[in-house]
Write a structure and sequence with these properties.
The protein has a single domain, classed as Carbamate kinase (3-Layer(aba) Sandwich), CATH 3.40.1160. The chain has 10 helices and 16 strands. The strands form 4 sheets. The chain has an 8-stranded mixed β-sheet, sandwiched between helices. A 4-stranded mixed β-sheet has the order 7-6-9-10. It is globular and about 65 Å long. Bound molecules: adenosine-5'-triphosphate and magnesium ion (MG).
């Protein structure tokens, strides 16, 4: 009996959050580095489903960096990163698309559907959802910067009560090259969150959050502090685009950006439905009008 009361208490504790978030859009960036353990992956699918069932409109944008690297490795193609971005020549671009759109996207979609959800996997190329131009072709090759988000397609998917699962590949916004562009999934997620006027963006990765130079977790960051940590080199590698994407989302009107540990069981639910939250939250400096 005692245990049952505790279960009811847990539900009641979540009630204010359920009320607060019903009808809101949350973008979840499911990092490649967090898609490792099969048990955790199944829990992510359950978490997403539960969020949808309590009325949150969930949009998934996924990465897949480690799978791309291991596939390139098998083909004896070297992976090179500059400022946390994968340098992408034409050959690498083909592999990036195959792995992200063909493999990772369908794996996540299938996982959610096997848990009773209704996920629809698409690439940013579909219906020209994401249109991009090269960031700096000489430096990064086919790494794109998003110029346009045709967000109507995602809204239609959400209206049909489906869960969109988006691979971060973009169509060409200029030369009509069919290769398209490799978009860092963190930026794809932040641009989609801004265009959808999402309430929250949650980045699931493989660290407890943003760490300081003594490896302690930084629970709250504002835009200036994040800039300073980047300048000092404390934020490096894949965390650079992630923190930039967080800041971009906040500047674009998303209320809160969270970086959470995808290796922790039910991390998304802990962040969303408990007062403590987990990981690092990046907020604007002053005016958060609506409690997020
Ligand atoms: N200050 C920092 N705090 C935390 N992690 C950091 C920091 N600086 C660099 N990192 C690195 O950033 C990595 C996370 O970025 P990474 O791009 O590897 O993962 P991801 O974005 O989740 O996956 P994917 O790119 O495949 O979607 C961490 O594993 C860590 O090594
Ligand atoms: Mg990354």
């Amino acid at each position: 009996m005692k245990k049952k009361i505790e279960q009811v208490k847990i539900l009641l504790d979540a009630l204010p959050y359920i009320k607060k978030y019903a009808g809101d859009i949350f973008v979840i960036k499911y990092g490649g580095s967090a898609q490792i353990d099969p048990i955790l992956k199944a829990q992510v699918a359950e978490d997403i489903l539960l969020m949808q069932l309590v009325g949150i409109k969930v949009v998934i944008v996924h990465g897949g960096g480690n799978k791309i690297s291991s596939f390139l490795n098998k083909l004896h193609i070297k992976s090179t990163f500059v400022d946390g971005l994968r340098v992408t020549d034409a050959e690498t671009m083909e592999i990036v698309e195959m792995v992200l759109s063909g493999n990772v996207n369908k794996e996540i979609t299938t996982l959610i559907n096997q848990h009773g959800g209704n996920a629809l996997g698409i690439s940013g190329k579909d219906a020209n959802l994401l249109m991009a131009t090269p960031i700096d072709f000489e430096k990064y090759g086919y790494v794109g910067e998003i110029r346009l988000v045709n967000v109507e397609v995602v809204k239609k998917i959400l209206d049909e009560k489906l869960i969109p699962v988006i691979a971060p590949i973009a169509s060409d916004n200029g030369t009509n090259s069919s290769l398209g562009y490799n978009i860092n999934a963190d930026f794809a997620a932040s641009q989609i969150a801004i265009a959808l006027k999402a309430r929250k963006i949650i980045f699931m990765t493989d660290t407890p959050g943003v760490m300081d130079n003594s490896k302690n977790i930084i629970s709250t960051l504002n835009l200036q502090e994040a800039e300073a940590l980047k300048k000092s080199g404390v934020i490096s590698g894949g965390m650079i685009p992630k923190v930039d994407a967080c800041m971009e989302a906040i500047k674009g009107g998303v209320l809160k950006s969270h970086i959470i540990d995808g290796r922790v069981e039910h991390a998304i639910l802990l962040e969303t439905f408990t007062s403590e939250g987990v990981g690092t939250v990046i907020k604007g400096i002053s005016k958060i009008k609506k409690g997020a």
